[in-house]
From TrEMBL:
Keywords: Coiled coil, Mitochondrion, Ribonucleoprotein, Ribosomal protein, Transit peptide. Signal peptide: none annotated. GO terms for cellular component: mitochondrial large ribosomal subunit. It comes from Brachionus plicatilis (Marine rotifer). This is Large ribosomal subunit protein mL40. Its main location: mitochondrion. Gene3D superfamilies: 6.10.250.3440. InterPro entries: Ribosomal_mL40, Ribosomal_mL40_metazoa/plant. The keyword Ribonucleoprotein applies. Belongs to the mitochondrion-specific ribosomal protein mL40 family. Transmembrane segments: none annotated.
Length: 205
């Protein structure tokens, strides 16, 4: 066999056999080439063309939104925040109509009366400030004396010291009455009966 035939026939057959043995030994695929097929490519959905809007229409929309926000800001500045209404706090319409009649006109205070109230409040503030300062100083002295006494007690007797630093359960709970803003009414009889809360809740559906 000539060298030309060996190059053209034998070598390609030997290469194909070696490829078959490699494929079979490495378990890449054992079926025939005709059974291997490619699946169809799944392309994406074509994008929808964006609808072009006239810039004048967009500007008009922005101006409307801006005016609406400015109107809301002015309304809040004028009337304040609008709270949820409470039925119990809304007076009758007849009372609202008589608001001007029911309004009490208090006499204007004279300058001497205003000065008297001003100096009285100032004197009261100074008195309360001095009282608070004296109480804080007394408390600091009491705490300092207590710490010095405990330190000396710890040197003399550790058992009494451990007993002294224990919490006094008789002081807990601590209850105290007064002082109140107004004095109690004499011979006051509280009303009897049950109270039914009829407040309407707007957050319920």
């Amino acid at each position: 066999m000539s060298s030309f035939l060996r190059k053209v026939i034998v070598r390609p057959l030997a290469f194909a056999k070696s490829c078959y043995n490699f494929t079979l030994n490495n378990a890449i695929h054992t079926t025939s080439v005709s059974s291997i097929k490619l699946s169809l490519s799944l392309d994406a959905e074509p994008t929808k063309a964006k609808k072009r809007i006239d810039p004048a229409v967009l500007a008009l929309r922005e101006n409307r939104k801006k005016k609406r926000l400015e109107r809301e800001i002015r309304r809040l500045e004028r009337f304040g925040r609008k709270f949820k209404p409470i039925d119990e706090l809304e007076p009758e319409r007849a009372i609202l109509k008589e608001a001007d009649v029911r309004k009490r006109v208090l006499p204007e205070k004279s300058k001497s009366k205003l000065d008297e109230e001003y100096f009285l409040k100032k004197e009261w503030a100074n008195y309360i400030n001095e009282q608070h300062r004296n109480q804080m100083e007394q408390l600091d002295r009491a705490l300092k004396s207590q710490q010095e006494a405990l330190k000396e007690l710890k040197k003399d007797n550790s058992i009494l010291y451990n007993s002294a630093i224990q919490l006094d359960t008789k002081l807990i709970p601590y209850m105290r009455d007064g002082p109140v803003q107004t004095p109690p009414k004499i011979n006051y009889e509280p009303p009897e009966g049950d109270y039914f809360d009829t407040t309407y809740l707007y957050d319920r559906r």
